[in-house]
């Protein structure tokens, strides 16, 4: 299994096997996603930038599990709404490439919001 669609189908079957379909509305899935992102956030809270780049051992495993939860909920939301996540991500990349042209960032280390504020 290596596609988001296959992952969604696997988890959808997991839900069906447990009779949880009634709980799988987009609203509920977004709320669950938010909870998982919060759990991921907790693993990085209070770390320095360098510490956050060098996680290992049990912490790295915990991060992997929370990232997996986030991905599963993202794919379920997309599945429920019939959205192709990969196509949507590619489309968003194209929008961002137009919105934030690379040459505008070559000479100065602007953050996206700083560039946006300068080009209103």
Distance between the termini: 45 Å
Judged by helices, strands and strand pairing, the structural class is mainly alpha
What top-tier CATH class of the largest domain fits best?
A: Mainly Alpha
Q: Provide a count of the helices.
A: 6
Task: Please tell me how large the radius of gyration is.
Answer: 18 Å
Brief sketch in words of this structure:
Helix content is 71%, strand content 0%. It is an all-alpha fold and 120 residues long. The chain folds into two domains: 4-83, MazG-like (Helix Hairpins, Orthogonal Bundle); 87-120, no CATH class.
Highlighted features:
single chain, 120 residues, mainly alpha, 0% strand, extended, Nucleotide pyrophosphohydrolase
Structure commentary:
This protein is an all-alpha fold and 120 residues long. It has six helices and no strands. The protein has helices at 4-17, 26-44, 49-53, 57-81, 85-99, 112-118. The chain is extended, with a radius of gyration of 18 Å.
Topology:
Elements: H1 4-17, H2 26-44, H3 49-53, H4 57-81, H5 85-99, H6 112-118
Helix pairs in contact: 1-4, 2-4
């Amino acid at each position: 299994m290596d596609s988001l669609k296959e992952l969604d189908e696997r988890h959808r079957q997991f839900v069906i096997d447990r009779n949880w379909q009634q709980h799988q509305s987009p609203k509920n899935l977004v709320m669950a996603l938010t909870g998982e992102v919060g759990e991921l956030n907790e693993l990085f809270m209070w770390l320095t930038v360098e510490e956050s780049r060098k996680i290992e051992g049990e912490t790295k495993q915990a991060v992997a599990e929370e990232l997996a939860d986030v991905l599963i909920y993202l794919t379920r939301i997309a599945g429920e709404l019939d959205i192709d996540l990969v196509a949507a991500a590619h489309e968003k990349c194209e929008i961002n490439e137009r919105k934030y042209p690379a040459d505008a960032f070559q000479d100065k280390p602007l953050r996206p919001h700083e560039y946006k504020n300068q080009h209103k």
